[in-house]
Structure formats: C-alpha cells, structure tokens
Amino acid sequence: MKTEIILKEGYPFILTSGLFFVLSLVFHFNVFFQIVLFIVFAFFVFFFRNPERIPEDSAKGAVISPSDGTVLEIVESKAPIINEECLKISIRLSLLDVHVQRSPVEGEITAIEYIHGLFLNLLDKKASRLNEQNRVLFETGKNKIVVNQIAGFITRRIIMFTGLGKIKLAKGMV
Asked: Which residue range is the domain that position 29 belongs to?
C-alpha cells in the first residue's frame, strides 16, 4: 500500500495559504507580505508531509519507533489501558518533526481509548496525565504494546487513521 506524500487533512491549510500567496503575486502585494505568505504556505506543506517509512526485513518481530522526535525518557511505569508495569519510552515531537505515528509492531489493535483533557506544554510533567490523549493497545500474540499519543499546547488534535484489527509494521498509520 502506497502512502500519500501529504496528509489529506493538510490540504485545506495548504490550498488556502497557497491561494493567498498566488493572489499576493497577481495583485503585486508588498514583497515582505509575499515572503510571509510563502513561508506560511511552505510551513504547511512541511508540517503535513508524510514520508514513506519502510522497515528493514530484519525488523520482523521487532518494536520500532512509532514516530520521529526526541526520546525524553525511558522508565518503568504503569501502562494505560492494560494497567500493568512496563517499559515506558516517551518521545516528544517538535514542530519540525513528521507528525504521523505508525504502528510500532505488526499485530492487532485490540483497544483504543480517547481521553479528553487540557493542552499543556509537553515539557510540563503534568501534561502526560492531564492533556488530551489517545491510547492504542497493540498485541502481537506474545507482547502488548501501548502507544499513548498526547496532544500539546500547539498541536491540539489527534486523528486516528485506523481502527481495531490487524495492522502491518510501520506502514499502518495510527
């Protein structure tokens, strides 16, 4: 399955900002204003990009990162949904990272839990408890993996691209 290069959710932002940029050229707006409109257009194209990720064949049975970003911590913690002790890996996405999350394992999504909440800065320790989040449970037969997507101060929406059922490694967008 070939993934789209730009997420369809970004089209309204990209087309609107692109239209304003083209209009600024046609009607000879101030050059500074044209540059600002182009930067806004380019940012939306960059933000909603969706590069294809193809895991190596040796990744069968492996757990891969569900997202780009910076690993903030690796600690023992109680996992949401299953309420069991496990290894927790926290990854924070900056505005420059790809904001598409993929399946970390090949298996089955057996539970999804959406929690409404706040939109605190993700650097705040309370954000992981209080912010809006989406929890997804993956089962591989022998392992359970929970991906907890947390909305932040700037990125306030979490969109699920799939539902319950079987999913392929890294190609399935969560």
From this structure: 8-47
